[in-house]
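Possible regression after last week's pipeline update?

I re-ran a chain I had predicted before the update to compare outputs. Posting the input and the new output here so someone can diff against the archived version. Not blocking, just want to make sure nothing changed silently.
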Amino acid sequence: SPATFFMDGNKTQKEKLFLLAICNAQWFGSGLCIAPDAVLDDGLLNVAVVDDISLWDYLRQLPRLRKGLRLTHTSVSYFSGQTIEITEEGWPIDCDGEFIGFTPLKVQIANRKVNILMPSVS
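New output (post-update):
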């Protein structure tokens, strides 16, 4: 079935989806630069979408990912914005290497906010 997501309210639909990475930083997964245009403090989420690509084509792109270069494959698209929403149910969500649940999902930027967890001091 087609995959649909909304970036700042603008609808994008892909026939098939191999990977959708929502990023605030450039790198993930053992040194792969999936979002080369991402800047931590620019107030934007960077989204890399890999749609109908074969596993072989994806593996051929890995050297570019390791070098921090944008992928130029026709099945790769880049988006940026402050909010992304996936309304379809049942897609697995991986957050920094950990499974955290299933879609639907809404991610938005909280400008220049960082929560710091630390033990209480007695």
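Follow-up from reviewer: compared with the archived run. Residues 26 and 38 are 5 Å apart (CA to CA). Marking as no regression found.
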